[in-house]
Specification:
The structure holds 2 protein chains of 2 kinds.
Chain A lengths: L1 E4 L2 E4 L4 E3 H7 L7 E5 L2 E3 L8 E3 L3 E6 L5
Parallel strand pairs in A: 1-7
Antiparallel strand pairs in A: 1-2, 3-6, 4-5, 4-7
Chain B lengths: L5 H8 L3 E5 L3 H13 L3 E5 L23 H12 L4 E5 L8 H4 L5 E4 L4 H14 L4 E5 L12 E5 L2 E5 L13 H21 L3
Parallel strand pairs in B: 1-2, 1-4, 2-3, 4-5, 5-7
Antiparallel strand pairs in B: 6-7
Helix pairs in contact in B: 2-3, 2-6
The chains are: A mainly beta, B alpha/beta.
Chain lengths: ~70, ~200
């Protein structure tokens, strides 16, 4: 499948994957993130069940302290 | 670049409202920059008081230590540009009050310190205020490394900073880099407010 991840096109060797699988595959080990699939918020409790499919637009925003 | 003279800029900004979520290093500096160019109205929310340790980066003065940040900031803005309408809220922002407090603002500036609060406001805007512009500050600790500071756009959310360096004992937030990011946020606000032809 081809998806847009953080404004960049990426290709994966799967037909779909959960948010958890995507984070593992990309080695995203951030402690605190905000994730959207097609502009809809995905909360942490749904990382194992929310599916990313071909054509999806996914955003992973890493949050860090300081202000 | 959009070419507009200062009179035109002030005229266009006069009826605009911008929310400032937090009046620390990012919020105080961003609010002052927006006040200087003549934004019509600033809605500022914070519960904290000015401390001695804030003076290395926040837009406060020694004789304001111990005072509520929202009161001190309103006073400092009035000294620069008394025409700005400053609305202050002495509270801790949460998913229930954010839509009410900032509902009438065209743009919200995220100016929190803690990552958990940054997450909270991003989730609140995505879920409860779809389409509202949110301009965040992310990664401003330490000094140097100018080239790493940038702005990233995710739909209606703009993220200014180096996206990497978290504050810590060994990586304190300091006036130059905090000021750069705060002013980048103000600059992004201006671009959003002025790029639309009205």
């Amino acid at each position: 499948m081809k998806i847009i991840l953080n404004n960049r096109q990426e290709e994966f060797d799967k037909e779909s994957m959960t948010i958890r699988e995507l984070l593992d595959e990309k080695n995203f080990t951030f402690k605190m993130v905000v994730i959207k699939i097609n502009n809809k918020l995905v909360r942490k409790e749904h990382y194992d069940t929310s599916l990313v499919r071909d054509g999806d637009d996914v955003s992973v925003l890493h949050l860090i302290s300081g202000g | 670049m959009i070419n507009l003279d200062f009179e035109e800029i002030r005229t266009r900004l006069a009826d605009k409202s911008v929310g400032i979520a937090g009046a620390g290093g990012l919020g105080s500096n961003c609010a002052v920059a927006l006040a200087r160019v003549g934004i019509g109205r600033l809605v500022i929310a914070d519960f904290d008081v000015v401390s001695e340790g804030n003076l290395n980066r926040q837009y406060y003065f020694k004789d304001q230590v111990g005072r509520k940040k929202i009161d001190a900031l309103r006073e400092n803005i009035a000294k620069i540009n008394p025409e700005i309408d400053v609305e202050i809220h002495d509270l801790r922002l949460d998913p229930d009050n954010i839509p009410h407090i900032f509902g009438n603002c065209q743009i919200i500036v995220e100016a929190f310190d803690l990552a958990g609060m940054k997450k909270m406001i991003a989730e609140t805007v995505i879920e409860k205020m779809p389409g509202k512009y949110l301009v965040m500050g992310m990664g401003l600790a330490g000094f140097g490394n100018n080239e790493a500071i940038n702005t990233v756009k995710i739909d209606n959310i703009y993220v200014c900073g180096d996206l990497e360096n978290e504050t810590s004992e060994q990586l304190p937030p300091l006036a130059p880099r905090v000021g750069i990011v705060a002013n980048m946020q103000a600059n992004q606000v201006l671009e959003l407010l002025l790029s639309k032809q009205e």
